[in-house]
Amino acid sequence: MLFYLQEILLGDMDVFFVFKSEIVGLLVSSAAILLSVTACYFLLKPLNRIRDLCDVGYEEQLRLDNYGQTRRQLANEMRRRKKIGEIPPVYPNGWFVLCESDDLKNRQVRSVDALGEHFAVFRSAEGVAYVLDAYCPHLGAHLGVGSRVVGDCVECPFHGWQFRGADGQCTSIPYTSGKIPKSARVKSWPCDEVNGFIFVWYHAEQENPSWKVPRIPEIVTRKWIYGGRSEYKVNAHIQEIPENGSDVAHLDCLHGPSLLYGSDLNAAQGGKSDNGWAPFLQHHWKVKWEANSEEKHVAISSLHHELRLFGRLPFISVDVEAKQMGPGLVCLSFNTSFGRCLLFETVTPIEPMIQRVLHRLYAPVFMVGPIAKFFVWGEAVMFERDVAVWNSKTFTSKPMLVAEDRAINLYRRWFQQFYSENSPRFTFKENVSSSW
Ligand code: FES
Ligand SMILES: [Fe+2]
């Protein structure tokens, strides 16, 4: 470098041109390296798609009827106006996801509202997750807000009482010289950390868990790794969401138009053939829904999917087994030409008519990146078409069905097992927040 500068200062123009071309070459190759590193990062980074209650559906109303309202205001108004229908009890019995494992570090506490309850979810210094009732029995402070974890206990931020995660017993009152009363305790909820989620067991009759969420060996042994996620809030009763698996007829109608039309229902209409010509790309589905005879909390939808060219030529085919376990969890096993992968769908009621739905994909390492991204994106687009329908539909307690819809009846009968005598019922004033 010094040599170049010396020669240039002495007026040697040849050296100047060599120097210039070397600098340009260096800049171009650095830019190319930077660009490829950035491209690799975005290609390999798992997709994380998050949609709030107002983000999906409502396109039509926004176009025609918004009177200057924001999307959020319009969605809130649509929620208020929606005819809810005669819905079943709002919180069925079963395992429900409160948060994902990644979202709770050691010694971290989170506040989670769901199932009409307020929870303090925390992880001990040793890494064990616990779920306690949120309100401190002393003077009612929230144990999930501003508290800290001490060993396997959570310490209330107000006066420092400590509660053990395993049983909710108060183990320390820092300023008393007397004995800690036995009744100084909060409710400790049955919880389990499985496949990247922290679950709580909810039962309206306070019964203990009657089944377990299965651990997937490929995830436990880290043979399959996290490949992306999506997250939604949906304005519907919880029973509507898994009902999709038994609703055979909606598949070709709602999910027939190619993925490329996206999730806007009006745009997707463009993918239907009403001019005598088969669309260039179309999805075809076959599904069979069955309650499992061995485990009564399980039902299985077996799906065969084909992407066809001009309605005839199968282009890509995928077989999916969707195993519904209880009211709040589905495990979808995809058998693709790239290999097998697994997608969890979890549904947690955070209000009677607001469900938080998570999708989380696990796949072999070689699939993580563009292939996994495509799966998460494709599944999300199709799911959003359902969300657009759920957000505005009413619950029909006595649906007008034809013979081909028979699985819907079977599903509804099967789902009844998750309600019990004291399952909370919907009351309009208490249970519909005017906004979220
Ligand atoms: S309110 Fe929790 S220790 Fe007082
Ligand atoms: Fe669907």
TrEMBL record:
* Domain of life of the organism encoding this protein: Eukaryota
Q: Which UniProt keywords apply?
A: 2Fe-2S, Iron, Iron-sulfur, Membrane, Metal-binding, Oxidoreductase, Transmembrane, Transmembrane helix
Main subcellular localisation:
membrane
Cofactor(s) listed = Fe cation
Query: Which cellular compartments is it found in?
Result: Membrane
Give the EC number(s) under which this enzyme is classified. 1.14.19.21
Named in its record, the pathway it takes part in is:
Hormone biosynthesis; Steroid hormone biosynthesis; dafachronic acid biosynthesis
Q: Name one GO biological process term.
A: cholesterol metabolic process
Can the keyword Manganese be found in this entry's annotation? no
Recorded hits in Pfam families, A to Z, give:
KshA_C, Rieske
Q: Any signal peptide, and if so, which residues?
A: none
Q: Which reaction does it catalyse?
A: cholesterol + NADPH + O2 + H(+) = 7-dehydrocholesterol + NADP(+) + 2 H2O; cholesterol + NADH + O2 + H(+) = 7-dehydrocholesterol + NAD(+) + 2 H2O
Q: Which Gene3D superfamilies match?
A: Naphthalene 1,2-dioxygenase Alpha Subunit, Chain A, domain 1, Rieske [2Fe-2S] iron-sulphur domain
Q: Name one GO cellular component term.
A: membrane
Question: Entry's CDD domains?
Answer: Rieske_RO_Alpha_N
Query: Per its record, what are the GO molecular function terms?
Result: 2 iron, 2 sulfur cluster binding; cholesterol 7-desaturase [NAD(P)H] activity; metal ion binding
Enzyme class, one word?
oxidoreductase
Q: Which family does it belong to?
A: Belongs to the cholesterol 7-desaturase family.
- Record-linked PANTHER family: CHOLESTEROL 7-DESATURASE NVD (PTHR21266:SF32), IRON-SULFUR DOMAIN CONTAINING PROTEIN (PTHR21266)
- Which named protein is this? cholesterol 7-desaturase
